[in-house]
Design a protein that fits this description.
Layout lengths: L2 H9 L2 H32 L10 E8 L6 H14 L3 E6 L10 E6 L9 E8 L3 H5 L3 E4 L8 E2 L10 E5 H7 L9 E4 L6 E7 L15 E7 L6 E8 L4 H15 L3 E3 L3 E2 H8 L1 H35 L1 H9 L4 H38 L8 H25 L11
Parallel strand pairs: 4-10, 6-10, 7-9
Antiparallel strand pairs: 1-11, 1-12, 1-13, 2-11, 3-4, 3-8, 5-9, 7-10, 8-9
Helix pairs in contact: 1-10, 2-8, 2-10, 2-11, 8-11, 10-11
Pfam family, one: FtsX
Protein name: ABC transporter permease
Family: Belongs to the ABC-4 integral membrane protein family.
């Protein structure tokens, strides 16, 4: 089939051709970039926190009354929690990953360093912390009971020993061998010695670029309002059961305090990434809407042309054109329009990606998104025009003898 008659026919309907081509180009540009953004959001949402999220939960305890002793209650609570059926491990902590609040400070390699070598989150924990968090020790040792000290709220953080994440260790000591090295927290001295490195533990802030820069500090430190936070890891499959039992047990053990809401780490992740999940859903809906509108536009244009050319189609059939020839004519016509639009859309997609890079610091759109989108939209165009093309192929030769 020759292209020239088809191109000549299209040139007589320039407005429709331009509008459909522009629609296809915009759809390609938006869909490619939207899919890339959705992919990045899903990657963020699926990042491992370094914890056993399925079986772990946390809660706060706030004491009141003149006779309430936060340090004594903390020790009593930990002993009680660790003896409860279904509890695999328990610790005290000032924060947990993905919660959105905690203690972050600079870490240096020299005392009184003007600019910190790295920023890190401080988790104040006891000797059972790694077991409770589910953090895996990659080198060095875990905390011992003798490492854990009591720190009053507001004191300087100067622990003799700390455990850091691998990401933070690599940032502080790119050459490796961080175990046994000394660092300075909050512009020390004295220095703190790294005794262990864990593979991964996230910070409380999911949008932080250095999300895996975490420091475990062996210290009991209730907050200034007699508030203590506990992290509990239940035996597999018993988390909900243990949560109910813990709330009742601690409330009965000491009525001079309020037990806060118990929250599982699954719930924390759900809340922390609610914005990313909403964006992915909205962009997905936009993609479906754009594809639907583009398909309907192609169907509408093709249907209009079929109705407008009924006599012409009948004449071609009378002159010997087969139904297959008519079908191929409209498919090829759509192929030309969508291909021109998709070529323009390729440039538009990369231009939109560059704008997003400069305006919102997004990564560059990978090259393979556009070719895949090109093929998908070309297929969509061919499927969309198939219905009107088949109707056109069924026009009988006798139509050529009728007056329109």
């Amino acid at each position: 089939m020759e292209f020239r008659p088809i191109v000549s026919s299209l040139m007589r309907s320039k407005v429709s051709m331009i509008l459909i081509g522009l629609q296809v180009a915009l759809t390609l540009a938006i869909v490619c970039n939207a899919l890339f953004i959705i992919g990045k959001r899903l990657d963020l949402m699926n990042r491992p926190s370094g914890m056993n999220e399925d079986d772990t939960f946390f809660f706060g305890s706030t004491g009141f009354g003149h006779g309430f002793n936060a340090q004594t209650t903390l020790q009593t609570d930990l002993a009680l929690l660790r003896q409860m059926p279904g509890v695999a491990a328990a610790t005290t902590t000032n924060s947990v990953p993905m919660i959105g609040g905690g203690w972050r400070s600079g870490i240096g390699l020299q005392p009184k360093q003007k600019t910190s070598t790295a920023q890190g989150t401080f988790y104040f924990v006891d000797a059972k912390a790694l077991d409770t968090f589910g953090a895996k020790l990659s080198s060095g040792r875990d905390f011992k009971s003798d490492d854990v000290a009591s720190i009053a709220f507001g004191d300087r953080v100067q622990p003799p020993t700390i455990i850091v994440t691998k990401a933070l260790a690599d940032k502080l000591f790119p050459d490796g061998n961080a175990v046994g090295k000394q660092v300075y927290l909050e512009d020390g001295p004295p220095a703190s010695t790294i005794v262990g490195i864990v593979e991964r533990t996230q910070e409380p802030w999911v949008d932080d670029a250095n999300i895996e820069n975490a420091v475990f500090i062996p210290a009991y430190m209730p907050s200034g309002n007699n508030r203590t936070r506990y992290l509990v890891r239940a035996e597999p499959g018993r988390r909900n059961e243990v949560m109910k039992a813990v709330e009742q047990k601690l409330a009965d053990a000491n009525p001079s305090r309020i037990i806060g809401k118990l929250r599982s780490m699954e719930e924390v992740r759900h809340i922390a990434y609610a914005g990313d999940r909403a964006m992915a859903i909205i962009l997905g809906a936009v993609i479906l809407a754009l594809l639907g509108i583009t398909a309907l536009g192609i169907i509408g244009m093709a249907s209009f042309w079929v109705a407008q050319r009924t006599n012409q189609i009948g004449t071609r059939r009378a002159l010997g054109a087969t139904r297959f020839n008519i079908l191929c004519y409209f498919q090829l016509e759509n192929f030309i329009i969508t291909t021109v639009g998709l070529i323009a859309g390729c440039f538009l997609a990369y231009a939109l990606s560059l704008w997003l890079m400069h305006s919102y610091q997004l990564p560059r759109l990978p090259w393979y998104y556009v070719p895949i989108g090109f093929v998908c939209l070309w297929t969509l165009g061919q499927l969309a025009v198939l219905g009107p093309a088949m109707r056109a192929s069924r026009v009988p030769p006798a139509v050529a003898t009728r007056c329109v």
